[in-house]
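ok so dumb question maybe but i'm new to this and my supervisor (M.) told me to 'just get the structure for peptidoglycan glycosyltransferase' and walked off. so i did the thing. is this what she meant?? sequence i used:
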Amino acid sequence: MALWRKLLIGSLGGAAAIAALAAGLDYADRAYPPPVDVAGIVSKEVLDRDGRLLRAFATPEGHWRLKTTAADVDPQFLRMLVAYEDRRFAAHSGVDPVALLRAAGQFLTNGRIVSGASTLSMQVARLIEPRENRSLLAKLRQMARAIQIERRLSKAEILDLYLTLAPYGGNLEGVRAASLAWFGKEPKRLSVAEAALLVALPQLPEKRRPDRHRAAAEAARARVLDRMAVSEVIGEGEAERAGGEAVPDRRRQLPAFAAHLSELALRKEPKATEHRTTLDRTVQDGLETVAREAAERLGPKVSIAMVMADARTGEILGEVGSADYFDGSRAGWIDMTRIRRSPGSALKPFIYGLAFEEGLVAQETIVEDRPSDFSGYRPRNFDMTYQGDVSVRKALQMSLNVPAVRLLEAVGPTRMMVRFRRAEVRPVLPPGETPGLAIGLGGLGITLRDLTQLYAALANRGMPVQLGDGITGEAAVINGDPLLDPVAVWQVSDVLSAVTPPAGSRRLGIAYKTGTSYGYRDAWSVGYDGRHVLGVWVGRADNGAVPGLTGYGAAAPILFEAFSRSGLAITPLPRAPSGAVRIAQSELPASLRRFSTTANGLVATVAREPAPQIVYPPEGAHVELGATTGADIAPLVLKLQGGRAPFRWLANGKVLPDAARRRTTQWMPEGAGFSTLTVIDAAGRAASVRVFIE
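this is what came out, is it supposed to look like this??
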């Protein structure tokens, strides 16, 4: 028989006690406790990118039991807990003989139990193996279990088990769940009053529940504060101040963000206890609040979905699948970020981007907005009016349909769909149809995630980015060709950043576009700054019409409000790359002043020269012109190949006096040092070199 067993039996004495203890200590030779599978008994948690709790799921038994360690809890609470519950916790081996003698003496003197002798180890034993009654045999078994626990587990492990399993009323177990439910915060930082209440509740969790028995909770907290003051764990002044604080009168809901993404995380890794996401809880909270409030304004059955991402990394920072997951009238359980719907005019920026890239138009090129027939396809503007001659810039800002279709016919619908594939986005056409002009006005199906992914390329200087799923973090720049070249992207962003914000919204410095599908079924708005992209969808999950629902009137205000309340600072849009300039209509070459078509609606044939290339001076050249020798500076001869005349040269961003039709010209440097030379041809294509003048 082990020495500790002999000593314990001998100290108790009495045949009955020895028999009872022997029965309890039969367990001592077994390996107890078995390894406690905390992962199998705690709530599953979904965390944000910084480890903050987004959402917790109750255990199969319906308990809120969050895994907790001493590192998760305020050190002041730990000091108060040990001082109140088990002062010699660090010294004893599971049973505190001093506490046993004290409790026995008080019982003999008063004829009733004045204070218990349970150690934290004994309480952990009771939590692991709940007793059916309060008999002596049950108490002895608990003591034996505590000794066994001490032999198998460290003090830190025992304390962590208590912090995870201690009852706090109702279905709350563990300090983290209790702190979140009663105070609405993690227990990492607690006031003295909060810590005292959490120490007091586990002794009688149901009779001291603050929401049901407030007086009992206050009295129990006061006893803890008094003892802590006597023990000098806290000062008397602290105890008095803490006693004046009100105890919580209601139980709060545990964090419940990102319902759809959280369920997806559990489906992907059902056995995992913790699921780390790329979401930012501050961003997620802001987006969900905006969606919930906007849905209430828009009326019944209308839902809202949003996706916000880092346009450089593709990581999802916030995702709202519906305005309210639990609202059956809005079909809130459907994740509308992944449902294909018609985007309306939301794809127009990519039509204009291709037209800029091809040199077909500049921002101030005049395009016709008049009733037109494109081989039987007769698009009309949303308001059924026409603007006549209008600049390309104005046509995109006003989202005019006829000019967009004219340009789409020029660049080719199939070509635009091929560009979408560069961004790993594959919109769905109606069955049996090939890409036609209708795709420019919403004649295809696309998800909010995919639309946001397309716009992420605009925010990322034309380089497409694969959005992650929000869970694994697998997101990256897509290797391959850009969606659009940087100059075309800048032209599009420059136009969209000047669009007037919706009524009641302040200008934020973002570029954005809206879209409305046929029959007022879907309203869209996608916007971006220099770092982040946000997509918004508004509509009914059942694809029903919502009279008067438009992208500008419904989705755009949500976009601006969500950007403002996301907690993210607005990043300025990128500066213009080399060759990206906005030229006045009067200064455009003749071929770019008006976008013209033939009488039968086909684009006039335009010769396709190769893009301009500066052949002298070459990139990085050091050119000696006498700038550092005191001699007169000689002009530098500039030579180019390709491109379409006339050509406009820029030196260090300054336009040289005259446009030239010749491929050779001269430039007079102002002095020594590095200079950047750029040439732009009549198609808007550009080339640049950087040279050092000596």
